[in-house]
Amino acid sequence: EYEGERNVEGERHGRGKARLPNGDTYDGEYEHGLRNGQGTYRFTSGARYIGEYRQNKKHGQGIFFYPDGSKYEGDWVDDQRHGYGVYTYANGDSYAGDWFNHNRHGQGTYIYKESGSKYVGGWINGNQGGAAELIHLNHRFQGMFLNGYPMGPGKYVFDSGCEQRGEYVHPEPVKETGEEEEEEHILLVPPKWKAADITKVTLWTPSVEQPASP
C-alpha cells in the first residue's frame, strides 16, 4: 500500500507512506520509486531506522534502534555501518569510533559499563587489534592487541606512580581428545603476562634556585 506523491510517470516521488508485503512500514521521501532522502522505516521485529536513504539503502546519517534495546547512531553506506558512529549495547556498554562494513574497524573507544574500564585504540574487523590502552579504575595497560587479546611488549601503569614492564606471551595451544571421538580439538589459551621489571616510585620535588648574592 502506498499513499503519497508521484511524478508524471506514476512513480513514487516526493513524500509518501508505504506498507510493504512483509508488514514493514516506511514514512519518508522517495525519488523515482525508491526510498531516497530522509525517512523512518519500522520493522515488524520492533526495530526502527530514522535517517537518510539512497536508492532504497540506508546511506548517510541515521539512527537504528534494535529489538534488544541497543542503538547505533552514525554513518551508513549501502546499508552498512560505515564511517564514524556510536553504538550503545543492550548491556550498557558503548563504542564510539570508526566502522568499516558493519564492523568496528579503525580507531575507537569501548566503555564497559559494569567495570567502568575503557579500551582506547585500534580495532580490526570487529576485534581489538593494534596499539591501544586499556584503562581500569586504578591502573592501565599500554601495549599491542591482537584478536581481542594483549600481545607482545607492554607496560602496566599504576596510579601510585610505578610501572611494570613486560610482555604477553602466547602459550602453546592445548590439544584435547574427546572420549567418543578420535578427533583432536585445539583449545585456544589466552596469552599470559610475563613481568620484566618494576620501576620504583620517585617523589618529585621542585628545585628552588638561590638568588645571586649582590
From TrEMBL:
* GO terms for cellular component: motile cilium; nucleus
Keyword ATP-binding on entry: no
The entry's protein name is Radial spoke head 1 homolog
Q: Which GO terms describe its biological process?
A: axoneme assembly; meiotic cell cycle; spermatid development
Q: Per the record, where are the segments of Basic and acidic residues compositional bias?
A: 1-13
Does the keyword Transit peptide feature in the UniProt annotation?
A: no
Region entry Disordered, spans: 1-32
Q: Where in the cell is it found?
A: Cytoplasm, Cytoskeleton, Flagellum axoneme
Gene label: Rsph1
Give the source's domain of life in one word: Eukaryota
Query: Which Gene3D superfamilies does its entry note?
Result: Histone H3 K4-specific methyltransferase SET7/9 N-terminal domain
Query: SUPFAM superfamilies from the xrefs?
Result: Histone H3 K4-specific methyltransferase SET7/9 N-terminal domain (SSF82185)
Q: Which UniProt keywords apply?
A: Cell projection, Cilium, Cytoplasm, Cytoskeleton, Flagellum, Meiosis, Repeat
As for what it does, the entry says: Functions as part of axonemal radial spoke complexes that play an important part in the motility of sperm and cilia.
